[in-house]
């Protein structure tokens, strides 16, 4: 279970670029590699998945306790696990290290390679490195410099050695391998033109300018002690999962947990398919960018009608963020143009100037529903510029002393902006599968 973390001085340092470059290099050379992302981010994991052709997973110490993190890391590991950090190495919730890359590295006992964007920086790099090494007892063992030339790297290298930390190479600025951005971060992997070609260029660059052997030699293979959390089957059910470029934000461990509990997951495309999969007992509409594809979604009136029919007939449905937006009567796209959607949720979704209710939150159900009974609690995350005039009131949300109501809750529906990681409370996933099983049994009786 060899593992190493790529962390950074701050967001925008190049963590995803370095991670993808190294992963592509390893895959090209026949190494069985898997990746993880610290925190709740979906988009970086999709880039990882596009490189290695296998799921990429999240490790989040706000959602999960220490044992769960160790269990998921162990269960999903391969010959080498690359863990990509989040934000700056020490950046956690409310100016603490809670839910930071640093905390994950300590829980998982993972060596850390610090990535520094040293564009327009010289001797100051020494002060930054020294500060990161001395701020807390840590597992930082190497440094990679981003957006520097070979000449600059050769000057930075002895600085690292004088501080007792190993220099592991550099990546120069290369416009043709730059990964594109959108207002929620990186553009999703499925949308990047010539992504494979870009990643191959990054891998070639990495082979020439990074000390790959040095990185792998630093990876720790010490076993972690943990309690097994594998779940038993509850019911044999078929759950339709929306999956295309408009709906692509899912935690892979959520999907795997639903399978463990007995779900057969059947993917479909709200963009391209005219009908839902046959004989389904549940529906999962994940997040994504329905506002970018609103016109195409609106034109697929057959699927919109199918979705409305399914939910209103009582099929259990989870709809998170983009999936929640899709259930509205209308969506206004990024230009303000209005399009009809499924009409399950009364009202419209519309873009705001700033992020809405951004960050981690804690949810408490104020009535019974498809995911839990009244009083059920789970931790969640919101990351969206869009808002709704029908956010729902089935849960009470709390974040840093601020409180509000959210999520449209019915006996068969949970639809709102929060993204839930089921490993924050596996009972939510169990409740959903039980409801799907109840629906299946009711259909048999009729």
Structural class: alpha/beta
What is the count of distinct domains?
A: 2
CATH fold field value of the largest domain:
Rossmann fold
CATH architecture label of the largest domain = 3-Layer(aba) Sandwich
Q: What gross morphology would you assign?
A: globular
Strands of the widest sheet, in order across it, are 3-2-4-1-5-6-7
Number of helices: 13
Low-confidence stretches: 182-186
Radius of gyration: 23 Å
Full CATH superfamily name of the largest domain: P-loop containing nucleotide triphosphate hydrolases
Query: Mean pLDDT, as a whole number?
Result: 92
Instruction: Using the coordinates above, name the CATH class of the largest domain.
Output: Alpha Beta
Intertermini distance: 51 Å
Describe it:
This protein is an alpha/beta fold and 446 residues long. It folds into two domains: 217 residues, 3-Layer(aba) Sandwich (Rossmann fold), CATH 3.40.50; 209 residues, 3-Layer(aba) Sandwich (Rossmann fold), CATH 3.40.50. It has 13 helices and 26 strands. The chain has a seven-stranded parallel beta sheet with strand order 3-2-4-1-5-6-7, with helices on both faces. The protein has a six-stranded mixed beta sheet with strand order 12-10-13-15-25-24. A five-stranded antiparallel beta sheet has the order 23-22-19-20-26, with no helix packed on it. The protein is globular. About 1% of the residues have low confidence.
């Amino acid at each position: 279970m060899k593992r190493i973390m790529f962390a950074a001085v701050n967001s925008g340092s190049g963590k995803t670029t370095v991670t993808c470059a190294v992963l592509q290099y390893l895959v090209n050379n026949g190494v069985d590699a898997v990746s993880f992302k610290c925190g709740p981010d979906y988009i970086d994991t999709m880039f990882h998945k596009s490189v290695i052709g296998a799921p990429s997973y999240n490790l989040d110490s706000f959602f999960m306790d220490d044992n769960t993190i160790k269990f998921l890391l162990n269960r999903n590991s391969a010959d080498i696990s690359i863990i990509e950090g989040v934000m700056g190495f020490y950046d956690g919730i409310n100016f603490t290290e809670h839910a930071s890359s640093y905390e994950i590295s300590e829980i998982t006992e993972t060596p850390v390679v610090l990535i520094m964007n040293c564009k327009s920086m010289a001797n100051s790099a020494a002060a930054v490195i020294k500060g990161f090494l001395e701020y807390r007892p840590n597992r930082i063992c190497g440094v990679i410099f981003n957006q520097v030339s070979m000449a600059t790297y050769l000057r930075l290298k002895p600085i690292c050695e004088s501080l007792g930390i190993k220099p592991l190479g550099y990546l120069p600025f290369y416009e043709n391998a730059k990964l594109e951005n959108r207002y929620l971060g990186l553009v999703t992997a499925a949308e990047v033109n010539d992504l494979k070609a870009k990643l191959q260029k990054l891998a070639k660059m990495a082979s020439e300018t990074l000390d790959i052997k040095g990185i792998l030699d630093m990876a720790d293979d010490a076993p972690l002690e943990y309690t097994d959390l594998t779940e038993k089957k509850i019911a044999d059910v078929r759950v339709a999962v929306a999956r295309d470029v408009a709906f692509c934000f899912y935690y892979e461990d959520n999907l795997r947990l639903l399978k463990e509990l007995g779900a057969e997951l059947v993917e479909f495309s709200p963009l391209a398919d005219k009908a839902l999969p046959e004989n389904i007992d549940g529906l999962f509409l994940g997040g994504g960018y329905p506002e970018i594809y609103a016109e195409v979604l609106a034109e697929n009136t057959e699927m919109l009608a199918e979705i409305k029919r399914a939910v209103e007939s009582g099929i259990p449905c989870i709809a998170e963020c983009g999936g929640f937006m899709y259930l509205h009567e209308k969506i206004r796209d990024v230009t303000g143009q209005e399009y009809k959607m499924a009409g399950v949720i009364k009202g419209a979704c519309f873009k705001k100037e700033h992020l809405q209710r951004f960050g981690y939150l804690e949810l408490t159900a104020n009535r019974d529903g498809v995911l839990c009974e009244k009083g059920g609690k789970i931790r969640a995350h919101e990351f969206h510029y869009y808002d709704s005039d029908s956010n729902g009131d089935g849960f009470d949300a709390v974040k840093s002393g601020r409180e509000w109501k959210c999520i449209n809750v019915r006996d068969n529906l949970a639809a709102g902006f929060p993204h839930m990681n089921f490993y924050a409370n596996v009972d939510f996933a169990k409740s959903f599968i039980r409801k799907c099983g109840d629906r299946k049994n009711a259909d048999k009786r009729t």
